[in-house]
Amino acid sequence: MALxxxxxxxxxxxxxxxxxxxxxxxxxxxxxxxxxxxxxATPIYVYWPDALARIAAYNATAKLxxxxxxxxxxxxxxxxxxxxxxLESLSFEKAVxxxxxxxxxxxxxxxxxxxxxxxxxxxxxxxxxxxxxFPREQVYFFRTDQLWREHERIISDVQDFLRxxxxxxxxxxxxxxxxTRAAAHILPAQTRARLxxxxxxxxxxxxxxxxxxLSDWMNQSxxxxxxx
Length: 228
Fold this sequence. Notes:
By secondary structure, this protein is mainly alpha-helical. The protein has a single domain (about 25-220), classed as P-loop containing nucleotide triphosphate hydrolases (Rossmann fold). About 40% of the residues lie in helices and about 5% in strands. It is built from nine helices and two strands. Strands 1-2 form a two-stranded parallel sheet. α6 (about 125-135) runs parallel beside α9. The two termini are about 25 Å apart.
């Protein structure tokens, strides 16, 4: 894997994408290793305009591993991270409401790195774009809550997908860009219900595209075990 968890290469708008310099990307890897598969993990690539197309142009045979999280919990976790960073001053309710979402609508190309709590949780359009660029057999989808609960099974499935020798590490290390354990952690019930309703149709579309069973996400009684 890359030296940095989130390289942020394919979403870098300072690069001349008509003739991109690959130096920064290549510097992230140990090229003395032979007979290995190399990869990196930058979640925003799925959402950021043109990032997936740039990956396809770089390597059309790339394999993509996509973890999806319950959209309301993902939005809340995202808000907690930006609040902890000091980049968000609105409450979660306001940040995912009309006031907060206008910041995304008015951003260039309708995409915002910080305030896209709702938009990044609307997975189906992002996944449809991905599957237009990459054959379905090059994409592995999994639920992040199942990775947490069924760690060994998901890791085994990923290794089968990559066609590498099985090696299950029984230890876990949850690597996050910002430690939000000290941030607000109670998801407001009314906002949860409103977002669950907003995301309901998209969850169904996402399930159809990914072939994952997301039916429990449609239930207000669903609770995520990850807690981060």
